Amino acid sequence: MLTRLDILGSDDLNAEEVQVPEWGGLVRVRMLTAGERDKFETDVAGIGGKSKNMTNLRARLVVLTACDGALAPLFEPGDVEALAKKSAAAVDRVFSVAAKLNGFTSSDIEDLEGE
User: Fold this and answer.
1) Mean pLDDT, the chain, whole residue set
2) Which residues contact 74 (CB under 8 A, 6 or more apart)?
3) 25-30 sheet: strands from edge to edge
4) Burial of 81 (0-12, 13-18, 19+ CB in 10 A)
5) Nearest to 66 by CA among 90, 95, 44
């Protein structure tokens, strides 16, 4: 059986690289922490009395998950608007890997999008 220290000390945040030809190279995408995912879902779905906010959904997840080799963020929260103006195909390619890596199912995405 795992102990509390085994679980809390485990290195369980993986990353994956995705080729983005529109941007001319690779983008590394990392897993969210449980708290980051909860906050993202709360912000999008409007949980806790907030209004549902679908604006720039894909760009927001990419900003949260795109990282460098040391898993430090590539983007700042203020970059969402600028990233939302980039190629939809490129952003969606990175978003798809981020969603898969973080366990978002098709149903989860549809629920967030309200489809």
Assistant:
1) 91
2) 27, 66, 67, 68
3) 15-20, 25-30, 66-67
4) exposed
5) 95
C-alpha distances in Å from residue 54, one per residue of 46, 59, 77, 98, 113 = 9, 11, 16, 17, 6
If we measure between CA atoms, which residue out of 56, 64, 66 comes closest to residue 39? 64
Neighbours of 92 (CB within 10 A): 13
For residue 100, CA distances in Å to 11, 75, 81 come to 19, 20, 23
Residue 73 DSSP class: B
User: Dmax of the chain from CA atoms?
Assistant: 48
Structure tokens at 17: 């690289």
Classify residue 98 by burial, with Cβ atoms within 10 Å: 0-12, 13-18, 19+: buried
Arithmetic mean of pLDDT, 85-105 = 95
pLDDT tens digits, residue range 26-40? Answer: 999 999 999 999 999
